[in-house]
Specification:
The structure is a homodimer of 236-residue chains.
Chain A lengths: L1 H40 L2 H32 L3 H34 L11 H21 L2 H31 L4 H33 L22
Chain lengths: 236, 236
Amino acid sequence: MPTRHIVTAYDEQLNVMHNLVREMGRLAAEQIGNAVAAIADRDTDLAAQVMERDGRIDALEQQVEGQVVRLLALRHPKANDLRVVIAGLRIANNLERIGDFAANVAKRSMTLHSQPEVALARSMLPIGQAVAGMLGDVMRAYDTNDADAALAVRRKDADVDRAYTALFRELLTYMMESPARITACTHLLFAAKNLERIGDHATNIAETLCFRVSGQPLDEERAKGDDTATMTVMPD
Amino acid sequence: MPTRHIVTAYDEQLNVMHNLVREMGRLAAEQIGNAVAAIADRDTDLAAQVMERDGRIDALEQQVEGQVVRLLALRHPKANDLRVVIAGLRIANNLERIGDFAANVAKRSMTLHSQPEVALARSMLPIGQAVAGMLGDVMRAYDTNDADAALAVRRKDADVDRAYTALFRELLTYMMESPARITACTHLLFAAKNLERIGDHATNIAETLCFRVSGQPLDEERAKGDDTATMTVMPD
């Protein structure tokens, strides 16, 4: 039964890709949680661990790319199979970026350690939990091939954007009260932006899953709540 | 001559992809130049034009993806041909992100218009010119398939990182002198970060071209000069 044999080999190779992507998703969610804990608790050991582990996610992405190239070269998948492979490549790329953002949050938390403590650093925790939750949900939708669950993740991104916008305003206001806070608050602004970008990448993964299911890009416009690029705050 | 006919059709389809990628590169370089001019000259009309034109780059990326899926599904390229197609997809993705960063610089320049003028805004011009130059060079390397030229672009990124780091420090210092400058300088910090990220994406394109030529990922470590995540500045 050569046909059955070929199908099985293809499925096995596809499973190798899926397992690599799942492991990237698991690691990335863990990195987000640890990065925000490091910044909130001023825990430099945990920050160092996050920075060191980022290399694992990068290495996994390289493995996904290698597996995708092998699948395309040897199995030349078509139609639905091809979409599944291309989606795997795109999602791995998004997960690698999420890992970079988490590592950058950890790096900035090390810098904050030498600066006056800013209570707003703890506001990273709920935003971090929200984006790690989006990532967990979208990776479950990856497993179940559930476009509705993916769309639900995409809708949550507007909440993250609003929380980021509120924190951005608070940080600007706090900076205006004392120049000694400017360095710390600047790093918190960039750390918060990184978390907001993680939400965007979880949303990109959700959109890729919808494309994987339907073969069509989404035409429904995404709700956006990040108004920070146009925000102005004036000192009292 | 069916074989020759197939080869020709493949080359034609590949050329469609290349022309779309080239057009994305040309538009992206133009958008960078206009975005930094808008921020330096406080030109809101130019900023609005950059924001409006970003959709063209997004639409071109969708066309590249469609063409890549067609090429993979119908032509199942192998080895070198497959690398060329995968590289096209990756490069289009980088160019789309570059377009987003340029549009965000333009959007922030609109916000700056309501704020006190900050002379440091003009420091965006040389950094913008440097990253637009890197992009122009790497797109020429795309055309000539020149890995050495691509590596030369990659080496220039450290200069951009250093210029960004210097500007970051100047902006923090400037903010500390007066709370009224904090909003404007924060947007300039994020705009400068966007330009630095454009340099990273031009570097990613250079690395993808090296992979396209050799089939191997680069193992030479990239020189990094962006030290802003660990930077601290204290008020006098």
